[in-house]
Amino acid sequence: MNYAFAREQYKQSTKAGLSGISDPHEMITLTLSELSRCLKKIQTTSRTDGQRNVTFSKAFTAVYILQTSLDFEKGGEISENLFKLYEYCRTQLQRALKLDPEAELVTCVQVIDDMIDAWSVIK
Hints:
Helix 1 runs antiparallel to helix 3, helix 2 runs antiparallel to helix 3 (52-68) and helix 3 (52-68) packs antiparallel against helix 4. It is built from five helices and no strands. It has helices at 3-14, 24-44, 52-68, 72-97, 105-122. The chain has 123 residues and is mainly α.
């Protein structure tokens, strides 16, 4: 996994001060949590809210970090399936950004929250 790259991208996007995080597991946990938080916020944010675009940007960045952190050589089918889940969320975010009423953000939240629960058990 390319954790250094992921950490740098996240720091640049959110300026969250993640320089002290060296544990890859913690980095993924934080990124999944941020994605979940953003997805939930997008669902409750009005179309005119000035923070709407910032929240979308953070969500897209979290998806990007998660996708680029996958190691397809070592992870095999698991990495491929995770990539597909992240890509599904990215697609739904794009739909929501375009105000498509068919965007399935609720499903994305459920999937990501389930992943957070599973990831916490792994550690």
